[in-house]
Amino acid sequence: AILGFLGSLFVSGVFGASVYRSFWSNAERMEGIFGMLHYAAFFAVLLGTFRAEPQKFIKLAAVFVAAGLIALVSGIFAVIDTGYVRLSGVAGNPSFLAVELIFAGGFAAVCATLSSRRWSRVFFSASAVALLGAVFFTGTRGAVLGLVLGLATSAVSVVVTRAAQRRTVWYVAVSTLLAVLLLGGAAWLTRSHPYVAPLVE
């Protein structure tokens, strides 16, 4: 997935409006190909570290979840204080907060799956629901769409994997149909919501 993402960045950079900007980006964003190559190298370092000592991943993920919860609470207080309906967090940018919430929620879900203690599973499961649910209230359409597609892709991946193990085609068909109905129904029920309406339209 990482290599595929980097490949798509290279293609879009070469055929984009400015190869220079695509490669270097700018000091504010730091999202050019040059920066992404550093993130990919950091990913390789983390991969090697966590393969050698998997428990370190749980500890780091737990810290990330805690940071996400703090950011969520600060965003709620900001809404109460300013009256601005979109969650924005201490950075004052709903888009930045949405991305942090998605990652923190994903880490919380992973921790809930890997935790051996019941109270830990309950805590991380509740955290995942709160963090991922809060993405909707940032009002960031790209983040909401990415979250929905990511969840759908993950669900299909799990279903296909289990179906391959059980060799049951009907399991794949029924589960995929239920996922489509669930996502479609959620979009239809919230079609009048100011955050969802632009996506549905």
Give structural notes.
This protein has 201 residues and is an all-alpha fold. The protein has helices at residues 2-14, 19-24, 33-52, 55-82, 94-114, 118-135, 141-166, 169-189, 197-200. Helix 1 packs antiparallel against helix 3.
Write the layout of secondary structure elements.
Layout: H1 2-14, H2 19-24, H3 33-52, H4 55-82, H5 94-114, H6 118-135, H7 141-166, H8 169-189, H9 197-200
Helix pairs in contact: 1-3, 4-5, 4-6, 5-6, 7-8
Features:
201 residues; mainly alpha; 9 helices; 78% helix; 0% strand; globular
**Beta-strand residue percentage:** under 5%
Give me the strand/helix succession: HHHHHHHHH
The 3D shape can be described as: globular
Radius of gyration, in angstroms, nearest whole number: 19 Å
Average pLDDT, all residues: 82
Task: Please state the oligomeric state of the protein chains shown.
Answer: single chain
The helicity comes to over 70%
Unreliable stretches (pLDDT < 50, length at least 5) are: none
Structure annotation, total helices = 9
Biggest β-sheet: count, sense, barrel?
Answer: none
Structural class: mainly alpha
- Report the span from N to C terminus: 30 Å
The beta-strand count equals: 0
